[in-house]
Write a structure and sequence with these properties.
Number of helices: 3
Structural class: alpha+beta
Order of helices and strands: HEEEEEEEEEEEEEEEEHEEEEHEEEEEEE
Helix content: 10-25%
Strand content: 35-45%
Oligomer: single chain
Length: 383
């Protein structure tokens, strides 16, 4: 005689297990963020127009809806309107205070343009009409050695902004403490424009070293651990939803921490794994291991994320790094995180004809991503 009660109980248990397993699988897959492919675009500035030669930095100004682009070959910041026409050129190769040796970054804050010279430890402030307003020497306590600037890449590449100064929404300066001769308790110190210290921000990860020790570096590569020299690789992103709060991106782990401008850590989270992050990490270790075996200790940077921006909802958008000497696919990955640091969307910005460096900015009100191409073009991808 068939025991229907037993069969029914068994069915319910199996169904519950199946449902639970399915929910768990769905949750795990969604924890890596939904992939959104962007392959339709408009060309704002074409190669044939010869407007740009070697664009290195791109900033979208929400007040004017214009783009500010630093061109390393032209040695100018160009302001472009919505049609891609040049409105203004701000010269950055010479000022009344001397010559820029290396432009590391530019910032648009409160209708001023700030240009960071990482060789001379100087930030120069311009009005948006190009008039020089003033400058700040942020390296008064550092040895003022002025090595020649590195050779200019032949094609557009994203600047390495790890452990470089950044401007806050109030016009204050986040100065990196990453220096081999310094001993600090924080990764950054916040100063006002007059050079008065406001706060220390950012915990130095355990095992970090500001000086490169090759023996330790080699041992870390063999163990597939983050080398001590890269552990403190960080860059800040101002939270546009809370302008007295700062995202600190640990680009080698990777990890996101949130601080306020008083130096208090609000939260910290490790970033979820994804196929594109795994691929980048795997290449770093394979290349490093191969180099060490051949007796040629060629070092490449471990920068899983290379730049970022936030929106008015406190979401964070980070662009993945690239190794330019490989046949990297013609795509740019941008990861979107919610206000708590959870990865929620992964944008695959695709190109069929040319490589896309990790140079981008976003017009959030117009839902447009601006991207620079290897051929010195500017494309607009709706999202």
């Amino acid at each position: 005689m068939v025991n229907h009660t037993a069969y029914y109980t068994c069915f319910v248990v199996l169904f519950a297990v199946f449902q639970f397993s399915g929910c768990q699988k769905k949750a795990n897959s969604s924890s890596n963020g939904k992939v959104i492919v962007l392959d339709e675009y408009q060309t704002l500035v074409s190669y044939e127009e010869n407007i740009l030669s070697n664009p290195q930095i791109l900033r979208y100004d929400k007040n004017s809806s214009n783009l500010f682009i630093y061109d390393a070959k032209k040695k100018k910041v160009l302001e472009l309107d919505n049609n891609g026409s040049v409105c203004k050129r701000i010269r950055t190769e010479r000022t009344r205070r001397g010559e820029f040796l290396r432009v590391d970054n530019i910032f648009l804050v409160n209708n001023f343009l700030y240009v960071v010279d990482g060789v001379q430890f100087r930030i120069t402030k311009f009005a948006l009409n190009g008039e020089l307003v003033g400058s700040l020497n942020y390296g008064k306590d550092k040895p003022q050695t002025l090595p020649p600037p590195a050779p200019l890449p032949l094609e557009p590449r994203a600047k390495n902004i790890n452990n470089k100064p950044a401007m806050t929404a109030q016009g204050n300066v986040l100065q990196s403490n990453f220096h081999p001769n310094d001993h600090f308790n924080a990764l950054y110190s916040l100063y006002d424009w007059q050079g008065r210290k406001q706060a220390d921000i950012g915990e130095i990860p355990e095992g970090s070293s500001f000086a490169l020790d090759f023996d330790r570096y080699q041992a870390s590569i063999e163990k597939r651990e983050v080398p001590a020299y890269y552990r403190s690789y960080t860059f800040p992103v101002i939270d546009r939803a809370n302008e007295d709060e700062i995202f600190l991106i640990y680009s080698a782990f990777p990890r996101i921490a949130k601080y306020n401008t008083a130096g208090k850590k609000l939260w910290e989270t490790d970033i979820s794994e994804s196929l594109e992050l795994d691929s980048l990490t795997d290449y770093f270790y394979k290349y490093s291991e191969k180099s060490l075996k051949k007796g040629r200790p060629t070092r490449i940077g471990l920068r899983k994320y290379i730049s970022g921006i936030s929106d008015l909802n406190g979401h964070l958008y980070l662009a993945l790094g690239k190794y330019y000497f490989t046949n990297f696919p013609n795509r740019l990955w941008i990861h979107e995180f919610d206000s708590n640091g959870k990865l929620i969307r992964r944008y695959k910005v695709k190109s069929k004809d040319v490589n896309l460096p990790s140079i981008f900015d976003i017009d959030f009100s117009g839902k447009r991503i601006f991207v620079v191409t290897k051929e010195a073009e500017v494309r607009v991808y709706p999202f």
